Amino acid sequence: MNAAGIILADNAALLSKELTEHRTLAAVPFGSKYRLIDFSLSNMVNAGLSSVGLIMSQHYDSIMHHVQSGAEWDLDRKNDGLRYLPPMSSAGSVLAKGSRVQTLRNNAFYLRQLKEKYLILCGTGYVANLDFADLLDQHIRTGADITCLFCRNVVNSIPLYQRIGLITDHDDRILSLDPTRSEALISELTMNTCVVEREFLLEVLESLGNNPRGLTPMDALQEMLRTLKVYAYFTDSQVIYLEDLNTYLSGSLSLLDLDVRNQLFHGSGGPVITKTKDSPATRYGKNAKVTNSMIADGAVIEGEVRNSIVFRGARIKENAVVENSVVMQDSTVGEGARLNYAVLDKEVIIDDGRLLSGYLTHPFFAHKGERI
C-alpha cells in the first residue's frame, strides 16, 4: 500500500485522567489483555502499511515497553517499520490548543523522509476493527484533499458526527460543522482518523504555521471546508468510543455481547494483534463461579465473577463477588469482598470483606497500586 501511518498516542481525548495518570492514552489496558494502541496498529498493518510513526506526549515507558520494536506487528524492519517520534510539546503534560497541528509541524522532517504518497493519521480514543484500505480507496476515488473517518455504529455513546452537527452532500463531502461546538471536539474530528496526501499535508502545516491573519482553529477549519475537498468516510463497523471513565466501563462491558466481540476481534479488517506473553492457564478454584465474563490467562478465580472483565494475573479470592466490573492486571480482590460497577487499575489490593459499588454512569475507581 502506498501509505504510511501516524498514530497520535496522546491524551488529547477526554478519557479519565485517572486512567492516564501513569500512562499515555494509547497504553490504557482494554479487553482483558490488550492496550488501546493494539487496535490502531493492527488496523494499519492489516491494511498493508509498513511505515508507522508513533507520537507520544508523556509517560513513554508503558507504551514503549508494550510495543518495543514493533515485532508483534511485523514492524521491526531495517527499512521503514516503526518509528518513535518526539513528544508533542516541550511543556510535558501541558498540551495547548492546536498542539496536534504543532506536533505534526515539529515532525515535518520525518514526513519528508517518507516515500509513501499518502498518510493515515489515527488517534487512540476508540477501538474498532476497521478496513483502512477501503478508507484510502475512497479518498483516492473521490479526489479528496482530506477524508475523515466517522462511525455510525458506536455501541456505547452517541456518534461523534451527530454531536458536531456534521452536514454533507450526497457524495459525503463535508459542507459544514456546528460552529457552537468546542474547538477541542472539532480537533478530535479533524485529527482523530483521516487520510491526506503527504506533500499536501506538509503544505497545509506550513500555511497554518504562518497564519498571518491570526485565524482561530475553528475559523481555519471552516475556511478549509470552503476551499478544500474534505470528505467523510462512514463505517458501519461497531466502534467503542472512549472519552471518560463511564464510556471506558460501558465499552469494556459491551465486549460481553457476542456480536460486538465477533465484530471487534474477528472483523473483516483482520486480527487484533497484541504483545505475546507466556502466562499460565487461568486457574479456577473448586468453588469458583463465572458467568458471562472475559477472563485472561494467568488469572486466579476462587470466588464469583459475573458480567466482568478480568486481566492477566488478577486474583479473585474465595467468597468474593465481582459484578459489572473491570479488574486489571495483578490486582487482588480479597475474601468476601464485593465489587459492583468498579474499575480497578493495575496492582490494586481490595482487603477482605470490603463492599465497593458505583454505577454504570459513575463507576467506582481504584488507582494503580492502591490498597482499600
Count of domains: 2
Kindly provide the name of the CATH class of the largest domain.
Answer: Alpha Beta
Beta-strand residue percentage: 15-25%
Which percent range fits the helix content? 25-40%
Polypeptide structure, described:
There is one protein chain. This protein is of the alpha/beta class. The chain has 2 domains: 3-265, Spore Coat Polysaccharide Biosynthesis Protein SpsA, Chain A (Alpha-Beta Complex); 283-366, Hexapeptide repeat proteins (UDP N-Acetylglucosamine Acyltransferase, domain 1, 3 Solenoid), CATH 2.160.10. The chain is 27% helix and 24% strand. It is built from 11 helices and 28 strands. It has a 7-stranded mixed β-sheet with strand order 5-4-1-6-11-8-12, with helices on both faces. Strands 14-17-20-23-26 form a 5-stranded parallel β-sheet, with no helix packed on it. Strands 15-18-21-24-27 form a 5-stranded parallel β-sheet, with no helix packed on it. α2 links the parallel β4 and β5. α3 packs across α8. It is elongated and about 65 Å long.
